[in-house]
Specification:
Blueprint (H helix, E strand, L loop, with lengths): L4 H15 L12 E3 L5 E3 L1 H15 L4 H10 L13 H8 L8 E3 L2 E4 L2 E4 L7 E3 L9 H20 L2
Antiparallel strand pairs: 1-2, 3-6, 4-5
Helix pairs in contact: 2-5, 3-4
């Protein structure tokens, strides 16, 4: 049985994930830049903003309050907007790249649309892939706090 081009592509990506050779591991996110060698390195100015966001969240600030604080400081969003969206801040707080890890295979393309994958067997975790901006302890504490806040909001309904 022959594979379709889509299936071949998916198999090739999966193989590169498993071997640790996928270029997707070095996809840049806010707080990092790419070295000439193609490796992720910390952008000191943006890294300070990442730390600011994580610490403000852990100190009880809502996503809206963090957005307002960033605007008051004159820190533009990753897309250059004056105001950071709550969604952008929430995604930043959930991004494991800030602890130096990379998870490959978090999404699948179905009919041309990226869909979040919940199949852990297709995901590959690369620990200590690049320099960390925050500690695993802070990252894990933020994930617990996000979960607690969402539970509290659901219970209030």
């Amino acid at each position: 049985m022959e594979l379709t081009k889509s299936e071949q592509s998916r198999a090739g990506l999966q193989k590169s994930f498993q071997s640790g050779t996928s270029a997707k591991a070095s996809t840049v996110c806010y707080g990092y830049k790419v070295s000439r060698a193609g490796e992720l390195m910390i952008d000191p100015i943006e890294a300070n903003t990442v730390l600011f966001i994580f610490h403000r969240f852990m100190n009880g600030d809502s996503l809206g309050k963090i957005s307002d604080a960033l605007a008051r400081k004159g820190i533009v969003s990753p897309t250059g907007r004056v105001t950071w969206s709550r969604e952008t801040i929430s995604k930043l707080l959930a991004n494991e790249k800030y602890v130096g890890d990379v998870v490959l295979g978090k999404t699948n393309v179905i009919d041309g649309v990226h869909v979040k994958s919940h199949d852990a067997s297709t995901q590959v975790l690369m620990r200590a892939h690049h320099p960390a901006i925050i500690s695993h302890e802070l990252f894990n504490a933020v994930q617990r706090e996000k979960n607690n806040r969402s539970r509290s909001r659901l219970a209030a309904r």
